[in-house]
Amino acid sequence: MTLAFTGLVFMQMSWIIEASELKKSHFDQLVRQSIDAVITRLETDEMSAIKSNYSLDERLSPIFRRQMKSHSGGESGSKRGKNYNISLDLDVDGHFSLNTYKQDTLISALKGRADLDDMSHLDPLTNAMVAIQKELRQKVDEQSHILMHTLFEDMPIEKRVDQQRLDGMLMQSFAERGISLIHEYAVLNSQEKVVLCTAGYNPSDDVLVYKKRLFPNDVHAKLHSLVVYFPEQKTFWAESLGLLIPTVIFTLLMLGISIYTIVIIFSQKKIDQIKDDFIGNMTHEFKTPIASISMAAEIMMEPSIPVTKESVVKKCKIIMDQCKRQRNMVERILSIAAIDSGRLILNRKEMDVNEIVDSVANSFRPLVENEGGELNCFIEAVDSVALVDEVHFTNVIYNLTENAFKYRKPDVPPVLYIKTWNKNDGLIISIKDNGMGITKDNLNRIFDKFYRIPTGNVHNVKGFGLGLAYVKSIVDLHGAQLTVESEINIGTKFDIFLPLKDSKNGK
């Protein structure tokens, strides 16, 4: 599902990007077409003005006018044949003379020399005709150049472009192509200086500028240019892509739902695993006392075993201890449930915390010494009376001490330190061990319900994973603070800071 959705998102984003780029490219094309149309129209209008304002015959030499009339078909072919005579004189060195007469009057003469070496494969007459053709073409080009420069004066660009007319042309050209954005423009001369511009012309560095050469076919070739840009072009893109916004929103919504679904699936899987571990641990924890009680009862009921008062008392003590153990486990589970539902009510009263700590230490000392270790208890708190729930607060100290003893290193004598002292109008209870320690990753999760530190396939430490969650909840209900420090193979230390001022005021 993740792979399919990733592919869908990729395709959606690719389509959105492609559509955006296509729209931008189409817009750029329309703008450039509009500007090209305006530049072409400026050239056409200027040519029309020149034709209407100037008389061609008044500016040309008489000879050139006659040549233009002759080339333009001003006289019929029959008349040209009757009234014009052409004579060609060619000597052996390649010198030629071409004269044109009209009724015995010389009207043009062309002299030159044909290069016989370059055209040795041709006869002399053909060589002369080729040379004459070159001379005539050169004369025509020279006359055309003179004509063009005579007709088209080299005027400054600001005199050739009327701003009011240019405004109208641009607006009309853009409107014909469906472009309604506000535009700004400027006319730059060949030195890139602004000679004409709109009032709001001030392009920023991040704006897209369209630049085209003005009068590209001009006789006096100069790099004048027209610059156009659209100040609201970015806003236009956002508005034009408005139809894509719902697609993006729905895509992101689908992405969020998919991620949330995946998180829920993994979370549910994790909860199922925790539930299975809890049921397995609870079954094991309840089986042990049940088996002990059952065995003690069977021994007492066995006829072949003599019954004495001492044996009955011993078996009854086993039964009572196991029943008490079961009751404590049930109460712990019920306490967690009550805390979660907010139904747990603390029965707080003034208690000497030093006495509670000392009592728990004395109950664990034989167990620690039986393992070859030692338990050191330092009662240094002078002000130790606080409002606490005797049962639950005792369970807090008991659970922390039990964990310090249970999570000891194999084959290493356990060493436990329990200490109380006053600090900042409060009481600190510290429980420290030299056990296995806790990694940083697990340290952030040890107060989660049902969480137990992974130990592979080793299950030498019993429990439900509720102890530290219960401890944290009870400490919070007392308005106290619980901190933990731990290093692998060094040990762990839990500190409880109980504000005496708030606890005595019943807050």
Structural notes for this entry:
Helices cover 54% and strands 18% of the residues. The protein is α+β, with helices and mostly antiparallel strands and 507 residues long. The strands form 4 sheets. It has a 5-stranded mixed β-sheet with strand order 9-11-12-14-13. The protein has a 4-stranded antiparallel β-sheet with strand order 5-4-7-6, covered by helices on one side. The protein has a 3-stranded antiparallel β-sheet with strand order 1-2-3. Strand 13 and strand 14 form a beta hairpin. Helix 1 crosses helix 7. The longest helix has 58 residues.
Q: What best-fitting shape do the alpha-carbon axes yield?
A: rod-shaped
Number of domains: 4
Q: Mean pLDDT, nearest integer? A: 77
Show unreliable segments.
70-81
- What composes the largest sheet? 5 strands, mixed
Under the CATH scheme, the architecture of the largest domain is 2-Layer Sandwich
The helix content, as a percent range, equals 40-55%
How large is the share of residues in beta strands? 15-25%
Structural class of the secondary structure composition? alpha+beta
Provide the spatial order of strands within the biggest beta sheet: 9-11-12-14-13
CATH fold-type name of the largest domain: Heat Shock Protein 90
Just give the CATH class of the largest domain.
Alpha Beta
Per DSSP E runs of 2 or more residues, the count of β-strands stands at 14
